[in-house]
Amino acid sequence: MKLANFFLLLISFNLISVEQDQLDVDFLSDDEYRIDLIFIKYLKDEDLKENFENPEVNFERFFVALDEFQYPNFDIVPTNFEIPKENQSIDIPFIKKETQKKTIEKNIITRKREFPREIFQIDKRDDNLMKEFKDLIRRSRYFRFIGEQSWYQPIPTKDNSFEIFIDSSIERGSRIYGFLRPYKGRYLHTDIEIFLAEKIQEDEILSIEESDNTNPNIEGYLFNNTGLELQKKSLPNLQEEELMPIFQLKESRRLRSGEINYFDHPKFGLLLLITKPS
């Protein structure tokens, strides 16, 4: 009898977690960090040794959706990245070599968030702290720059952590989106689950429309400083844009503030930089 009650309690907890509309906001008193992302697609045509099944994206979960805010651009102190000579391209070994260098926090001035910009608001202006990498990627014949995002937030402990929906722009029929869960203990950590979505053929569109696996109304939550009564935010219906996820990248990693981390898949990847404003 006690075992049955335990399973009923466990099921109830799972249902509540999906419909969660509140957050533990104790972490708001912690130091703020800045998070910068660059989404990358790998263009080199290689036969994959591993077989990948089409992934299914689970949106039946609680996650914070980033809001948008724009403000005037400011100059960024250049980093110490080696810039290739004209007509020289970059490849995956180059990116891995560069991201494995010492921390770059001393070479980047991460400005503090300026009022009235709030935490969890992305900056649409071109101020990504990995701008030099973005320029290299755009010049490369091996990579395609898909998009970028930047925002500020305090980082909670693992017990209070939550997922954030991240999303690139649509670039030449490709889009990268998914979930990022940063948290801290003795070190910074993050869990990522991202998907590469591509345009699909007309016959595939028809089969999707006939199936019941569509997500007609995908909603996240906009953060507020109280953590109470979070406002829902509808996300663009990815299937209406004729884009379907075809590859998935899922990984957990320990991080250091000021280090660029490259999460790579044979077909796409993500550059992540977390820094503490000086």
General description of the model:
The chain is of the alpha+beta class and 278 residues long. It has one domain. It has 4 helices and 13 strands. It has helices at residues 2-18, 92-99, 131-139, 202-210; strands spanning 32-42, 63-65, 67-69, 121-123, 143-154, 163-167, 174-184, 188-199, 219-222, 231-234, 243-255, 260-264, 268-275. The strands form 4 sheets. It has a 5-stranded mixed beta sheet with strand order 2-6-7-8-11, with no helix packed on it. Strands 5-1-13-12 form a 4-stranded antiparallel beta sheet, with helices on one face. Strand 12 (260-264) and strand 13 form a beta hairpin. The termini are far apart. The model is unreliable at 1-19, 76-89 and 102-106 (pLDDT under 50).
Summary, kept brief:
This protein has 278 residues and is of the alpha+beta class.
Q: Main sheet, how many strands, which sense, barrel?
A: 5 strands, mixed
Give helix % range: 10-25%
Nearest-angstrom radius of gyration? 20 Å
* Strand line-up in the sheet with most strands: 2-6-7-8-11
Tell me the β content: 25-35%
Distance between the termini: 57 Å
Integer count of domains? 1
Q: Helix and strand string, N-terminal first?
A: HEEEHEHEEEEHEEEEE
Number of strands: 13
Low-confidence stretches: 1-19, 76-89, 102-106
Number of helices: 4
Q: What global shape is seen? A: globular
Defining traits:
single chain, about 280 residues, five-stranded mixed sheet, 13 strands, globular, disordered N terminus
Topology (SSEs and partners):
Blueprint: H1 2-18, E1 32-42, E2 63-65, E3 67-69, H2 92-99, E4 121-123, H3 131-139, E5 143-154, E6 163-167, E7 174-184, E8 188-199, H4 202-210, E9 219-222, E10 231-234, E11 243-255, E12 260-264, E13 268-275
Parallel strand pairs: 2-6, 3-4
Antiparallel strand pairs: 1-5, 1-13, 6-7, 7-8, 8-11, 9-10, 12-13
